[in-house]
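A.,

Following up on our hallway conversation. Structure tokens first:
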């Protein structure tokens, strides 16, 4: 008997069409960039875990890792759609604040769907790339309230904060919404990620109060591993945000490393000449992260010399913010506000001064390159709006959650440790 083969000619035609149209090099680059950004969340877990006390290593690390699961589910259900469906210009979003549900559950998107005619890589990759940003943003906040917040209340917070803070700002800035239409620029997340998370962290500290007892970092080598993964992943975070391989991509890549390095060295020198007058490993790594956070909104819009200056400004500004926090007695345990929040603000304002249209033709020149000051004005308004909204909403959200689920753990839980009480596990087993 002859075998009969059934061929889905429509599927075959679409597959061949995609292969012909696909930019293989760009697709490979975006897969790599997405993988790098994914590494940042485990990196953050190591960074925070090493800085935390030894009774709460697993609880703080779990808060980062659980975001990978929950945020992915939310992104699949409707997160991607409300962020990147509809634009204010087309009039098919909600007043430029949030998108629509046209792409909920990735409706209408297949593996052969290209992102756009000029960026010929699968939209699936863009979905995954942006999802990694959604995962790490709320996880950043957790370093502020380490040892003090119950896991159950955090899960509820994680879900609601993403929906009502992160998603709207992504749509407004990156999804063709209100701020994008007005002319606000944020290359890779100074406003959408660092400023919102940093001021949400400050709000959480305001709500939950101080720890029962402060502590020293339990494992500095673990912090070093986390810093290395964050720094490594940040190349995908910033360079990948161009969604292309061109001169802007290369500029963003080198600017990222330059700003981080200048910030790390500057922080080390400041620390060496103030306080205990000793250069610490923690200080060096904190400076690097401050530089990375600060260059993020400007990475693809400024030249290499400006990135070095921004790195120095980042170290000085974030170091001063951390000292101010200590002076005020705010128990932001891992300096999320001082490093990420203020880093996002400083970087966004610096963009208004250092933006260079010769580096990226999409951005108007900043004040130092002949601009009229409108970019600086718009960036300042946007950052004020983002930080105010994130702070106020976070306080209100914690108050609402607290009516149903106690947010702050009791003193006994803090003494014994959240690892064993809330999760039934310990990071280190002791043997006689």
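Then the amino acids I'd put at each of the 432 positions:
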């Amino acid at each position: 008997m002859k075998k009969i083969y059934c061929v889905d000619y429509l599927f075959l035609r679409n597959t061949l069409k995609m292969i012909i149209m696909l930019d293989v090099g760009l697709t490979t680059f975006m897969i790599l960039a997405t993988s790098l950004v994914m590494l940042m969340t485990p990196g953050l877990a190591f960074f925070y875990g090493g800085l935390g006390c030894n009774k709460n290593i697993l609880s703080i690390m779990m808060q980062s890792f659980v975001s990978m699961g929950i945020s992915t589910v939310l992104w699949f259900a409707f997160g991607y759609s409300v962020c990147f469906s509809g634009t204010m210009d087309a009039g098919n979003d909600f007043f430029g604040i949030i998108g629509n549900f046209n792409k909920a559950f990735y409706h209408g998107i297949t593996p052969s769907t290209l992102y756009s005619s000029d960026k010929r890589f699968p939209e699936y990759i863009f979905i995954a790339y942006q999802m990694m940003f959604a995962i790490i943003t709320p996880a950043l906040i957790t370093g502020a309230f380490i040892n003090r917040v119950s896991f159950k209340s955090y899960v509820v917070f994680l879900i609601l904060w993403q929906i009502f803070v992160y998603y709207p700002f992504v749509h407004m800035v990156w999804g063709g919404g209100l701020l994008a239409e007005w002319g606000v620029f944020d290359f890779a997340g100074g406003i959408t990620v660092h400023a919102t998370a940093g001021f949400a962290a400050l709000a959480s500290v305001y709500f939950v109060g101080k720890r029962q007892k402060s502590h020293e970092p339990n494992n500095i080598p673990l912090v070093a591993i986390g810093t290395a993964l964050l720094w490594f992943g940040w190349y995908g975070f910033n360079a990948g945000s161009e969604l292309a391989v061109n001169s802007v991509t290369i500029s963003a890549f080198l600017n990222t490393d330059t700003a981080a390095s200048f910030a790390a060295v500057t922080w080390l020198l400041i620390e060496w000449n103030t306080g205990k007058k000793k250069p610490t490993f923690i200080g060096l790594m904190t400076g690097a992260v401050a530089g990375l956070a600060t260059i993020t909104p400007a990475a693809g819009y400024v030249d290499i010399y400006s990135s070095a200056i921004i790195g120095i400004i980042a170290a000085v500004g974030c170091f001063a913010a951390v000292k101010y926090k200590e002076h005020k007695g705010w128990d932001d345990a891992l300096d999320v506000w001082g490093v990420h929040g203020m880093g996002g603000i400083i970087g966004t304002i610096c963009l208004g001064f250092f933006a260079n249209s010769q580096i990226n033709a999409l951005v108007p020149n900043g004040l130092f390159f002949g601009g009229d000051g409108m970019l600086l004005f718009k960036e300042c308004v946007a950052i004020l709006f983002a930080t105010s909204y994130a702070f106020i909403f976070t306080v209100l959200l914690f108050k609402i959650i607290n009516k149903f689920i106690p947010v702050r753990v009791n003193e006994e839980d803090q003494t014994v440790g959240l690892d064993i009480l809330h999760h039934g596990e310990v990071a280190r087993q002791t043997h006689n």
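DSSP finds 15 helices and no strands in the chain. Curious whether your intuition agrees with the design.

B.
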